[in-house]
Amino acid sequence: MSLTRRSFLKRAAGAALWAALPPFLPLGLAGTAQARTNVLARPGRSGLYGQCAPSGPLTLTARPVSGLLPGRPKAPLLVYQTVHNGATLYNPVLRLRQGQEFRADLVNGLDQPTIIHWHGLDAPWTQAGHPLHAVPPGGTHATAFPVTSRAGTYWYHPHPHGLTAPQTYLGLASFFLVEDQEERALAAELDPRPEEADLPLLLQDKRFDSAGRLLYAPSPGELAMGYQGPDILVNGVADAVLDTPPRILRLRLLNGCNARLFHLGLAASGRPVPMVLAATDAGLLAAPVPVERLFLSPGERVEILVDLTRAKPGTEVVLGNLPFDPMHREEGLPGHGDSLDHGQHGEAEPGHGQASGHGAADAGGHGSGHAAASPGPAPRQVPEGAAYPLLRIRVREGASTGRRIPERLASLPQAPAPPDLVRDFALAVTGGRWTMNGLTFAMDQAPVVVEKRGLELWRFVNADQSMPHPMHVHGYLFRVLSRRGSPAQVQDLAVTQAGLTATDLGFKDTVLVWPGETVDVALDFSRPDYAGEQTFLVHCHNLEHEDQGMMLNFKVK
Ligand code: C2O
Ligand code: CU
Ligand code: CU
To answer: Does position 254 have pLDDT exceeding 50, yes or no?
Structure first.
């Protein structure tokens, strides 16, 4: 079959996807008196997800704060609070230049242990946030590392063992953006006011109880499959709206959900709007890649460019989730068989005892878990594989910037040839739990030992009767070399002979591995050249999986 015919067929089959995406926001707050509160704020210098470019040490206090979520005055949110240049910020979006020294003091204002992990950033293991370094309530932890990472969209979130899922879910997470000269030059080329066109957007699903508080109360089945909720928030805002003059928007999208996958596309009146993939987890691609849709799993980031320079005022573009098969084919797990109802029970199956994660719903002392027992109206349902909107972009009056997306974005080395040293990581259910090579996490054991010397090929092999696992490696970036055995919905997105999708093309720290799939990645253990022996983690970024031990230490020496 000729390429053109093939891509035509793909397109024809795909058109139904966009048609399914509701052009308007039918759910939640839209159309109510609160509709005005869902306009996304321009990146500011204070408040929730305010931006800050620290030149000296920063104090981040993890604590519950009420009244931060628009339209949810009662919902306490766990946040990292800081004061910078006289302004108070919650979950600040940190912007650092390559070459700067980063210093942060964590103050634990929660009622359980915590530690911050700097996801994707180069930092020796003692500074990167390992569960071994979690500090007790009232404790503090000092972090310092030079920013040597590639310019890119990194992030930070808690990593205490067994408590990462509840603490992240209840609010603790934000961006860590690294800038360098090349990236700044591109930003200036894309827009005369790059700070306004560059939007870090944290995508998260949440569940609220009948009192309007965040609810983290997974049932045994949800612990096995991952905890999802029906409220889709963008930077804390439900039914989010973004107003923009005609310009090129640079959207930095982070899937900060515990477990939900996104299949993202842009639509206007039910038809696809082209978008351009500019960056993956760890920075820019060599050249822009036009994409119609992409999968984004928990922990992953992409930067997409949306060219609205010629859009008429009044144009509405919806960033939404397109229908897909979430592929919950797990066997031998508690809750197996309810997978179709997965995430849809709302408060009907409150977790209890240890199922709720060591009293984790009480993190910060607001006890939201207990509200689960009170009867309420049937919860709203937004299944993972359904079509639903995340963000409505409205083009308003204004002079167009008239800019163009350049043909080259950044220097990106070629992915290496497959290294000889191959390590397998089998992802499967063993003894009723998710395991890697049959193992679960043990704090004092490092089942994988690698030498600092150079390249290794890590092969993630997902069982057929399984579910998608976003696999994440600490301390080292990787390049994806191949995908084999991919399901049809992933094969459809392949852009190389080796089965890579567009989002596999750059530097990565998290890669989605579908049921039945084998994904090969190359890691270079000679860079960064950390001093001394290191203990890093490789784990599934489905946070319920991680907390229950789908994680291993690896030693580098
Ligand atoms: Cu973002 Cu070890 O995780
Ligand atoms: Cu990480
Ligand atoms: Cu997993």
So the answer is: yes
